[in-house]
Amino acid sequence: TAHTVLLNTGALMPLLGLGTDKLRPPDMHQAVDAALAAGYRAFDSAAVYRNESDLGQALKELLPKYGLTREDVFITSKLGPKHQGEGAKEAALRSLAQLGVDYLDLYLIHWPGTQNRPVSDQRNPGNRARSWAALEELHAQGKLRAIGVSNYTPAHMRELMQNCKVPPALLQVEFHPQLCQTELRRVCQEYGVCFQAYSSLGRGDLLNDPVVLEVARNCERPPAQVLLRWAVQQGVPVLPKSSNPDRIRGNMEIFDFDISVPDMEKLSALDCNHRYCWDPSEVA
Ligand code: A2P
């Protein structure tokens, strides 16, 4: 579709993808079916979601129904924290096998730490470097067409930029009007890294925010579409997760309206450094 962003690898990535955390069969199959029907061409997975094989299976069964092939969809997965370092290469290859594909469009280091918690650990810097080297190797082999990171802070990004041979294509972090990530966006822009949002709906909590509801009335759109539109109108790709076919369809309808400049500013003024997910800034 036309709604894509250009990565620094030269590849195009859809501005909207389906988040798949917590999706299990038979919901996974139903969600992927609704998403493909609605025009989704990107799917965001991760080893820690423990459902890569379910997503791979659903795509294998459903792509032919829509006259599509593997090449028509953009598949992302991520390296789990406990496989950072020595285990990174094997873990990435396991993700490929679980998804049943011979390449991934994008593969991310899921979290800057070696433990899946916001804690410091002396192994972290060495493991991040070893993980990145493994990703670079698989990128050179064509198995990971683009490589990037998730939940990195500005300090983690600078460390990576100073040590990499292949620069990251993308950073995926929590992003919504209460967490505008001004510094991280500036760092990404400086380094030519695509900035991608997760939890655009604040895990659902932002759907009841009075300002979001006011803008929704002005746009005559549901609050979820307003929150997603707020991001893509700034060029930021989004990954709404839903298991409900109606909401999956609705979350795609964000390319046929604009939020006015004053309403964009009203939403951005909600910025208060509020997180619905873990804060990675303690992860040294
Ligand atoms: P559900 O799967 O029942 O649709 P986030 O992406 O910020 O983490 O938010 C995801 C949560 O928001 C999920 O619990 C999902 O629940 C819910 N959700 C996704 N899309 C919508 C929507 N259009 N309206 C209301 N809730 C939504």
TrEMBL record:
Binding site for substrate: 110
Domain NADP-dependent oxidoreductase: 19-270
Keyword Repeat assigned: no
Range of residues in the leader sequence: 1-17
Entries under InterPro entries matching the protein: AKR (IPR020471), Aldo/ket_reductase_CS (IPR018170), NAD(P)_OxRdtase_dom_sf (IPR036812), NADP_OxRdtase_dom (IPR023210)
Active-site residue list: 49
Gene3D superfamilies with a match to the protein in the record: NADP-dependent oxidoreductase domain
Stored Pfam families: Aldo_ket_red
Marked site (Lowers pKa of active site Tyr) residue numbers: 78
Keywords: Oxidoreductase, Signal
PANTHER family (alphabetical): 2,5-DIKETO-D-GLUCONIC ACID REDUCTASE, GLYOXAL REDUCTASE-LIKE
Similarity remark: Belongs to the aldo/keto reductase family.
Protein name: Zgc:101765
Taxonomic lineage of the native organism: Eukaryota, Metazoa, Chordata, Craniata, Vertebrata
